[in-house]
Each structure stands twice: as structure tokens, then as C-alpha cells.
Design goal:
With 359 residues, this protein is an alpha/beta fold. It has twelve helices and twelve strands. The protein is elongated and about 90 Å long. It comes from Paenibacillus planticolens.
Length: 359
């Protein structure tokens, strides 16, 4: 009921109060009638404003929960990396009291499926969408659609070429690739040898940046020859077959950098099968339970560990800030760490490999 209507109803119930005794009849003057009515109406107005102000204060102190949609590259429970991102998202949502809806295709290569996820999320009209784009170009129209709808867009892990986002939160992939290159090229006593990188056939911007950083790093080592970046169709089995083929072609290869988890696991299987753990160094990315086991066994010599939990948490925190009118950083870079068998048991690295997540 509007304030005007409430006032109309209440003013119709105002009683007149005379100043004379009940036992002495007295004719009321115009002033004795109008003044009490005026005071009564004024009191109703004041009460009305107090009620409205109280309701507004209640609305401010108990706002509607923000609705945030999260579209990952994959929501597959077998993907340790993206499940850890999801865990960070959930932890932040609980702490900041926002509602979240996490979706994503079964496979990271299913770009069409992710575009459908974005369209479905937009139909629910969320306040913000957090997107980890599977493709730099093909997700650009979807990102533009999000911005045109008035929904805040926060990108994580990978950019899109339209730059429509309020903020991009991602690993510093160039620096991560550089660290992988330094690890493989260093400590070889000036021997001549070859190294290569292995990535998916739908190479992401993140992987391209890793290759660039890797190449810059090994350029500082004259005895190291870069044999190139080789692709596979995205499965561990395909990476395994590709590495077997490449080792036959390039017998002087002494180092392989797997640019993602599948590349790392496939390369490790091929090396372990040939019992070449002491001849070829593998440095990988990410920290799945399988990679950690291979690190302990010495098959993988190092892994570049990102911070997916942090990324997920920061994405929600940044979205809430942007929706609150707070200016957010357009790009937030998250550092990656080199973890080896020798340093994996430090407290800091154990927390990176096995972050404690509230279920």
C-alpha cells in the first residue's frame, strides 16, 4: 500500500477531541476543530515516514542475495583442477552470502556446450557471470552478449579477445612457462640436448603464453635446442602415443614440458614404460593426485602448480566488489610455483598440493 493511500485510510479514523468537560456542553469553534485534526494528520504523516524509513533501513541491512552464475571450462568431477576452482567459488560464496550456480561442459574441448551453458545462465538473469572461456575467439560473442545484458562479467583462467570483462583473474602463464624452461634447461653441464613442449590441439591462450615464456627462458642456454611444440587431441592416451612417436624421431630429446595435466600424464606414461626416467626430464602443469604420485616416484621431475582454489575464491570476491560499485583491478595475475620431489614436503607446498577445503 502506498504512503498516500495509508495516510488516506488513517486520516479517516482521526477522532475529534474537545477542550470542555464532558458534562458541560459547549459549541466547538472552528479553531478547536481544525487544530486537533491538523495535529492528528501531522502525526500520521510522521508515523508514515518513520515506517517507510524503517522499511528502507531493513532493506539495506538485509539485501537480496546476489545471484552469480559460474561457467567453468568443465564441471567434470574427474578434473581435479576445475573441482578445486569450484571449491574456491563455494568457499567465497558461503563467506560472502551469495547464491551461486556452477555449470560447465563435460569436456574442456566442448566449446559449443559451454556456449549453451552461458545462454542458459543468461536466461536466469544473474547479477554476474564468472566465465572460464574454453576458446579465445569462439566465446567472444557470448562475452559480448553478457555485457550487453547488463550482467557483470568476470573472466578466470583465460581471456577472450573482446576484453568485455570487468576483471580477468588468471595465472601468469608467461612466467609459469619461463619457470618450466629454466627448470628443464638448467643444470645440464653445457651438454647439447633438445627440449620440447606438448599441448592440446585446440591450444588455449594460456598454453600459448606458456610456450612463449618457455622459449624465452631456454634462449638463455646456448646448449639447448628447442625441438618445437607438439599437439595431441586432448586425451592422455593421445599424448602417450604422440610422445612415443616424438622420442623415436628426436633421440636427443632430454626434456619435455607438458603444458597441461593430460600432456604431463601421457608423457610420463611413455617415459615410465621405456624406463627412461633417468634420461628424460619431465616438467608438468597442475597437481592432480596422479601427478603427485609420479612426482614422488621421480618420473616427473617437477610440476608447475597453479592456485585454482585462490582463483575461484577471488572470482566471487571480485564479482561482489564490482556489483557493489567498487572499482576492481582489470587484471589479477596469480603466481605459480615449481614443486619438485625435494621440496614437495614443505608446509607451504603441501598446502598447495593438498589444500584443505571445507566440504
Amino acid at each position: 500500500m502506498s504512503l498516500a493511500l495509508r495516510l488516506k485510510v488513517k486520516s479517516g479514523k482521526v477522532r475529534r477531541f474537545g477542550l470542555c468537560s464532558p458534562n458541560v456542553p459547549r459549541k466547538e469553534s472552528p479553531m478547536t476543530v481544525k487544530r486537533p485534526v491538523f495535529l492528528a494528520v501531522l502525526s500520521v504523516i510522521v508515523i508514515g515516514f518513520v515506517v517507510v524509513a524503517s522499511m528502507e533501513m531493513l532493506r539495506i541491512t538485509n539485501p537480496r542475495k546476489l545471484e552469480i552464475a559460474v561457467v567453468l571450462k568443465t564441471n567434470n568431477v574427474r578434473s581435479d583442477y576445475w573441482q578445486m576452482v569450484s571449491a574456491g567459488v563455494k568457499a567465497a560464496a558461503k563467506e560472502l552470502a551469495v547464491n551461486i550456480d556452477i555449470t560447465g561442459p563435460v569436456s574442456e574441448t566442448d566449446t559449443a556446450g559451454q556456449i549453451r551453458n552461458v545462454d542458459e545462465a543468461l536466461l536466469k538473469k544473474p547479477d554476474a557471470i564468472i566465465l572460464a572461456a574454453t576458446d579465445y575467439e569462439r566465446l567472444a560473442p557470448a562475452a559480448t552478449k553478457i555485457k550487453e545484458s547488463g550482467t557483470k562479467l568476470i573472466l578466470i583462467d583465460s581471456p577472450v579477445y573482446t576484453h568485455t570483462e570487468a576483471s580477468l583473474i588468471a595465472t601468469d602463464n608467461f612466467e609459469a612457462g619461463r619457470k618450466a624452461g629454466v627448470f628443464l634447461a638448467g643444470g645440464q653441464n653445457s651438454q647439447l640436448f633438445g627440449v620440447m613442449t606438448l599441448g592440446g590441439n585446440q591450444q588455449s591462450i594460456a598454453e600459448k603464453e606458456r610456450v612463449s615464456g618457455f622459449k624465452e627462458a631456454i634462449a638463455d642456454f646456448p646448449g639447448v635446442e628447442y625441438a618445437g611444440n607438439y599437439e595431441f587431441d586432448g586425451t592422455e592416451d593421445a599424448a602417450y602415443e604422440q610422445v612415443k612417436h616424438l622420442l623415436a624421431m628426436y633421440p636427443n630429446i632430454k626434456g619435455i614440458a607438458g603444458l597441461n595435466e593430460k600432456a604431463t600424464l601421457g608423457a610420463a606414461r611413455a617415459i615410465k614404460e621405456k624406463k627412461w626416467e633417468d634420461h628424460i626430464k619431465i616438467v608438468g602443469f597442475d597437481s592432480s593426485i596422479y601427478e603427485i604420485k609420479l612426482l614422488e616416484e621421480g618420473v616427473i621431475k617437477a610440476t608447475i602448480v597453479q592456485k585454482p582454489f585462490n582463483m575461484g575464491y577471488l572470482s566471487v570476491e571480485t564479482a561482489v566488489q564490482a556489483l557493489s560499485g567498487i572499482k576492481v583491478d582489470p587484471k589479477v595475475s596469480i603466481d605459480a610455483h615449481v614443486i619438485t620431489k625435494e621440496n614437495m614436503y614443505t608446509q607451504e607446498n603441501q598446502e598447495l598440493l593438498f589444500p584443505l577445503v571445507e566440504k
